[in-house]
Design a protein that fits this description.
The structure is a homodimer. Chain A is α+β, with helices and mostly antiparallel strands. Chain A has three domains: about 260 residues, Bira Bifunctional Protein, Domain 2 (BirA Bifunctional Protein, domain 2, 2-Layer Sandwich), CATH 3.30.930.10; about 100 residues, 3-Layer(aba) Sandwich (Rossmann fold), CATH 3.40.50.800; about 70 residues, Translation Initiation Factor IF3 (2-Layer Sandwich), CATH 3.30.110. Chain A has 14 helices and 24 strands. In chain A, strands 3, 7, 8, 9, 10, 11, 14, 20, 21, 22, 23 and 24 form a twelve-stranded mixed beta sheet that branches. In chain A, strands 16-15-17-18-19 form a five-stranded mixed beta sheet, sandwiched between helices. Chain A has a three-stranded antiparallel beta sheet with strand order 4-6-5. The two termini of chain A are about 30 Å apart. Chains A and B meet through strand 2, helix 2, strand 3, strand 5 and strand 6 of A and strand 2, helix 2, strand 3, strand 4 and strand 5 of B.
């Protein structure tokens, strides 16, 4: 694949920038011949691998990983009334095997409640089987009729991490909801992605849930992106699927459930928040290549420079650093462009002058240039990787903080929603929400906000003047 | 989930044993409400994880991992005539999204040639883009009308590793075929699964291939199980999908391709070859738990024993060994049963007498009992893990060797096929093959055999008396 060179669209033209950077940095190819389906390039796949390894590390502390079938028979899928209403417009149906019409149409899972819970009904017998906590990372499908977009709105979600837990009591399930929120915050902290946690209004909760807590971030165009959800399911599904347990007094009870998920939107957020006019910017935790070494070959000292670069590579690799030595026969400038586009946190350059001075030149993806004494290569690089991550985190936090505005009246809400999110003391009445939404073009994201970026506010609803609670309004993807 | 106890069916009743061990050892649950679809239990999933990590390690040396969509539009799927003929009876079709009929029906990939090669046609431009070597691990689908069976014959193959490579010349593609065979042998050596490599007869090759090389093993009931295939695709697909490159003289040429795959049948082989009347037997390379520690709590020295067990766990974990300390309040015998069933290579027991003697009692899953001085715990355990693996490998090799018989005449072929595989100097004529197959109830597996277990033979075809070449005949799954 020949490399395109030349400038990216500026990031403040976010939509063009996003499409173009996915292609230029070899994250996704959008040319697959079905709308809403995309191909992971190897570099994109490597980012995905590191991101999901981090997610699995966190999940593995309190869950067991498992794998359920993709195909759900119509009679199971159609059991839970709310759930059907929420998904029936979006489900793909398999109706034929070979040339035969199937007796029972099979749904491609849009999410796996109706695949997993019939099995949970078999697995859960007594209170000793509880809690049951499992997760899987799978492809799921939505027949999206809206505008599709790689990593954000897809017909095949290739990387859905979904956890499903079963508990004896509603309170225990609620503790799990709280724990899941903490894990998601930890996960996103690792990606340097600032998040805002809030409780979705009732009309926007997961179909079949008691309530839904969402994890949102704010994209560079000011729109909120939902990048995680946590649902308290109560006993809605356990009643439908017959998930019961015998308590310690011998009484049969319906179990209480939760589920929570994260999709490849986590990678959309990672790319969009940190990237710049030169391409991706990746924190070292998930960068497939953390350090690229570019030998500067001038004149007669080529062999010497190559040897030095090779030694550096060995030393860094032995220290567990993901390092790449670029020995292609192209000019250094083309290499810089290539690795900047792909988000490599540190570029090391070594040429005759560096060798003579006993140093290596280092350039971080966030723009700092320094030299590292060759004897301190490993600690020097490790310190720089930390600096890059800190710098990425600060920049993202400042950016998102600047897009959050406390708004005391309707005009302020309208203004704030143009560039980000408004924080409003909404009263909780649907008709006030509708007015705020209509005037601002945004949606109520959620209440009971929890974020380091938002100060809890009290006050009165800007529409009706009743006492309100801290609520977010913004445009969404 | 309450544990079933009591004896497994004996392994010489292989079919019952296999179904029962998958359930008792918590590998797969077969009760999912669609024929041919199964659920991975966490223990089974953990085995899968370790097995596929090994496979990825090998693939990553020479390929880039990637991910293509599941859904293939009808017009792409229907492009290659041979390929259609091979798969059209088995393809699941998505025809509806929500309540709308789709304009273009979408196939669930039975394999990904027709998903990947339209993209390869875009990616390959010049000889500098070659070779291109990618792989993915994905779910694929076959509408199986035959008897389905977990891990062996499935409607959703959950774990298909498929590699697809593109080369400038037929010879370079052939080198890749040879390299792939070596990687597959290496992979199966790591699982202690002996294999036989042979070239499938023309009528049994992959639809659209120049030729197919298969990797087979022999299951405990004497039937051959295909656990890997490597295909030289020539330019069949590149002609169909327009995968061309400009050579160094500026001439446009069709590329040459290969593809090769391994499914979760690798886990079926692992389980079936090594398991015994007490359950799974796993080599340490892929055992989710390599060592289980069972504290023997008698009388007043419970605290002391528990502390010793805890220390042992810490020491082993620090040495990178996957260790589990079983502190459930059940009798030791129930713990032994539990972990034997799940295939844990080593059980360590520690009680007051062991503490007094400064030792730990060790029992391997292959039946050896010994003591390890507590000061030598790590090297002692590592040596035992090696012994278990060697013992598993020897047993599997002896078993499979005993099922391979050189057969010089038709009666010998018939006899050999009852318990395993016959090695015959077949002439290559289809009508001779048909007679051998009809008489023996077996199929021609392949020619040009390559295996440490089979000595190449020359001779004359037992049917027609013409010169033959070393060929395998056996019953298959």
């Amino acid at each position: 694949m020949e490399e395109e060179t030349g400038a990216l669209p500026a990031k403040n033209d976010f939509s063009s920038w996003f499409n173009e950077v996915l292609w230029r940095a070899e994250v996704m190819d959008v040319r697959y011949p079905v709308k809403g389906l995309y191909v992971w390039f190897p570099h994109g796949f490597a980012i995905r691998k590191h991101v999901y390894e981090r997610l699995r590390e966190i999940m593995d502390r309190d869950h067991q990983e498992t794998l359920f079938p993709l195909l759900i028979p119509e009679h199971e899928f159609m059991k839970e009334a709310e759930h059907i209403k929420g998904f029936e417009e979006e489900v793909y149906w398999v109706t034929h095997g070979g040339k035969n019409q199937l007796d029972v149409p099979l749904a491609l899972r849009p999410t796996s409640e109706t695949a997993i819970y019939p099995m949970y009904a078999l697995w859960v017998r007594s209170h000793a089987d509880l809690p049951l906590k499992m997760y899987q990372v799978v492809n799921t499908f939505r027949y999206e009729t809206k505008h599709t977009r790689p990593l954000i709105r897809l017909r095949e979600i290739t990387s859905f991490k979904e956890a499903h837990t079963v508990h004896a009591t509603w309170e225990e399930a609620e503790s799990q909801v709280r724990a899941a929120i903490e894990w998601y915050i930890e996960f996103y902290t690792g990606l340097c992605v600032p998040v805002i946690v809030s409780r979705r209004p009732d009309w926007d909760k997961f179909p079949g849930a008691d309530y839904t807590v969402a994890v949102d971030t704010i994209m560079p165009d000011g729109r909120a992106l939902q990048i995680g959800t946590v649902h308290h399911l109560g006993d809605h599904f356990s009643q439908t699927f017959g998930i019961t347990y015998e308590d310690d007094k011998g009484v049969q009870r319906y179990a209480q459930q939760t589920c929570y998920g994260i999709s490849e939107r986590c990678i959309a957020a990672l790319i969009s928040l940190h990237g710049d006019d030169h391409g991706l910017v990746l924190p070292s935790s998930v960068a497939p290549v953390q350090v690229v070494i570019v030998p500067i070959l001038i004149g007669k000292r080529r062999a010497e420079v190559n040897t030095a670069a090779e030694m550096m590579e060995q030393v860094l690799r032995a220290a567990g650093i993901r390092v790449k030595r670029d020995i292609r026969e192209i000019r250094p400038g083309a290499k810089y462009y290539h690795w900047e586009m792909r988000g490599v946190p540190i570029r090391l350059e070594v040429g005759p002058r560096d060798i003579d001075a006993g140093v290596v030149s280092a350039v971080t993806r966030t723009g700092d240039r320094s030299t590292i004494p060759r004897g301190d290569l490993v600690p020097g690089v490790q310190a720089l990787l930390g600096q890059v991550t800190a710098s990425i985190k600060k920049r993202a936090t400042d950016e998102i903080r600047s897009r959050i505005t406390v708004a005391g009246n309707v005009d302020d809400v309208v203004l704030a929603v143009q560039t980000g999110i408004a924080v409003v003391p909404w009263c909780g009445e649907r008709r006030c929400a509708e007015l705020l939404e209509e005037k601002s073009g945004g949606s109520i994201l959620g209440m009971y906000v929890r974020s380091e970026l938002v100060e809890g506010i009290d006050g009165v609803c800007p529409v009706c003047g009743q006492k309100g609670c801290c609520t977010l309004i913004g445009r969404t993807f």
